[in-house]
Amino acid sequence: MSLSDLRLEEVRRAWDAAGQGHVLAHAASLAPAERDALVAQLQTIDPFAATAAFARATAAPPAAAPREALAPLPDVPALAGHPERAAWRARGLAAVRAGEVAVLLLAGGQGSRLGFDGPKGCYDVGLPSRKSLFRLQGERLRKLEALAGAAKPVPWYVMTSAATDAATRAYFAREHYFGLRADQCFFFAQGALPAFDAAGKVLLETPSRVCVAPDGNGGVYGALAASGALADMERRGVAYVSQYCVDNALVKVGDPEFVGFAAAERADVACKVVRRVDAGERVGVVALRGGRPGVVEYSELDAADAARVDGAGALVFRDAHVCVNCFAVAFLARAAETLVDALPLHVARKAIAHYDGARVAAPAAPNGVKLERFIFDAFPHAARFRCLEGDRAADFAPVKNAPGNADSPDTARALAAHRAWLEAAGATVDGAGPVEVDAALSYDGEGLEAFAGVAVEAGLVQAEHARGAGGRLANLATSHDPSART
């Protein structure tokens, strides 16, 4: 018996024993290369663990289990006007300067909901500079290093997925890492879990491949350890990891005020929240559940709680989790070692294209189950969890939906944070179009004193536009046609 046949029989025995032997039903009819590819894929999946994960995720909760009481998180300081704000910023910049800060980007998503074929980070939201999300964020990181006078580069850990990994790496290389060093960019892919039918059988994508899907952003804990990223952080002497999601067009990469707050509070996990716009906003809420801090998904928040207001008419559950967090490296190490298998698995019922024994079927209605872990499910395990309220207009511009909808490129461009920076510096901004202050000029509104008394037009504002104070300066106004993509 050949080595290939021996591997096939070994895999068949394991998958048969787990009750998933159907995945090899077509192995005899496959070409040798296809059969070897299927066996190689199946060797990367533990069928017993996968079957147990489905059972755990879909098990009905005990009938007698009481609903855990929800309460708003107490004592959430607001960044705006806080007397410690300058001290937090100074402490965060000092940590960046000392090489104690790393940035963690969750970038596994594709741009399909935006009508874009590629990693979402490569998407151009239509700002005057026509820069992609990746470039906007990379240039902000470069500016942060300059602001802090960093002695060494701030490492940027980029979590991709199987669908985006190769394209993301190629894009960073093609764009020369946005002026950063190649060796400060550490790419790693999140894990994947099989997709199942309603009865818990692993679905086939083709006769020679099973369906798999990313394991959710909560897969970051295990992926950091498995990829060597966590060991790399420890080798570099990183103490704080500033984490965000790729689709936030306004995110302050490595936010020194937030890092300084987390350090001052000695937090295992810190969460930067913004206020919900209304009771119906589809965003998770940071709250106490059963006395422990965590995030309640909007789908789990009943209508009465979602709409509850206090004596001043403000929403009681108002702290929106926008996936801007800061972790102590020690907590990430503990999570990777002890929490990965303890985190809940969430069920997503999806229409999953699959091989039905005769053809690849593409159902219109949900026919299967994908399992996900969420990054915030580790929060209740933090010994010290802290929360800071940011400014929605300055911190959060989600790019999730196609143009013409809420939380889309249109709404991201329309936000006025950069216009406010210039006006606060004493500039007059003419025109109703988007205003974009180049990252090389300012990180979050600092360094714009030369614009006092200067009239500028909406568009891309760069350093040369501050010259000739008192004159009217035309900015670089480029097409905002969203059909043009970086």
UniProtKB/TrEMBL annotation:
Query: What is the reaction catalyzed?
Result: N-acetyl-alpha-D-glucosamine 1-phosphate + UTP + H(+) = UDP-N-acetyl-alpha-D-glucosamine + diphosphate
Q: In which pathway does it act?
A: Nucleotide-sugar biosynthesis; UDP-N-acetyl-alpha-D-glucosamine biosynthesis; UDP-N-acetyl-alpha-D-glucosamine from N-acetyl-alpha-D-glucosamine 1-phosphate: step 1/1
Q: Which GO terms describe its biological process?
A: UDP-N-acetylglucosamine biosynthetic process
According to the lineage, what is the superkingdom? Answer: Eukaryota
Keywords, sorted A to Z: Nucleotidyltransferase, Transferase
Output one GO MF annotation.
UDP-N-acetylglucosamine diphosphorylase activity
Transferase as UniProt keyword: yes
**Which residues does UniProt assign to the signal peptide?**
none
Question: What Pfam families would the database entry show?
Answer: UDPGP
EC numbers: 2.7.7.23
What family classification does the UniProt entry report for this protein?
Belongs to the UDPGP type 1 family.
* Protein name, as recorded: UDP-N-acetylglucosamine diphosphorylase
Organism the protein comes from: Aureococcus anophagefferens (Harmful bloom alga)
Per the UniProt record, the lineage of the source organism begins with: Eukaryota, Sar, Stramenopiles, Ochrophyta, Pelagophyceae
